[in-house]
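Quick start: read one record
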Amino acid sequence: MIRGIDHLVIACADPDAAAAELESALGIVSHGGGRHDGSGTFNRIAWLADGSYLELIGVDDPDLARRTPVGVAAMRTIAEHGGGLATYALRVDDLEATTAVLRAAGSPLGPATHGNRTRDDGATVEWWTSFPDAGLAPDATPFLIQHAYTGAEWGRAAMVERSTFRHPIGSPVILARLDIASAEPPSAAAALHEELGLEFWAVADLAVADIGPHVLRLVPRREMAVPAVVTLGADVDVARTEDLLGLRVDVERVELPVAPLVE
């Protein structure tokens, strides 16, 4: 039911400056974005070839942002760390059916709610989300999202174009792995299994799960210098590592192209 990691929510005091830093340091460009109507947040987006994306999110109305789980997580991340991974989303194709099954099994996920964002060109992007009751954090349960696969961002043509887009790094870029610093990886993995049905296995002191084409690893906090490490894949000759935006980003060489995460 869960197709993969949909996107990473990276909180930034200034999303435009963060987008410029991401492009300058790694050659990954951000396009578009806009304002989340009534939520007090806005974003820039680095689209990836596998259908996932990096969301650089900022807060422009704290009072409104405090009313939304993502806004609260973004504000806390900026206040405590100056920015970084606030949370992440997992993609599903039928949110109501998925949450019904998980809630029947005891998951604390909330009901599906509608969201939207207004692009700079005036077009509206729509989606539906389900959030865990306990709130969001990098090492907590992520939220689920279903997109409306229409329009300039999520229509079939846009997804196909995204799958072959060459970033300034010289290649399309995909999301390969997300490492999260965890106080107790086995306990955190057990909670994610209970709440979302994710299957983990142990590799040394790590807890590892395959989520569609992506890998999620829960790593003991003592072994990580940053709260999260994002591993991207690109057809490049030399691997790269940069500490930026409150996390570490690794770029590894992979074979491309790949199919986008939409039928």
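The mean pLDDT is 94.
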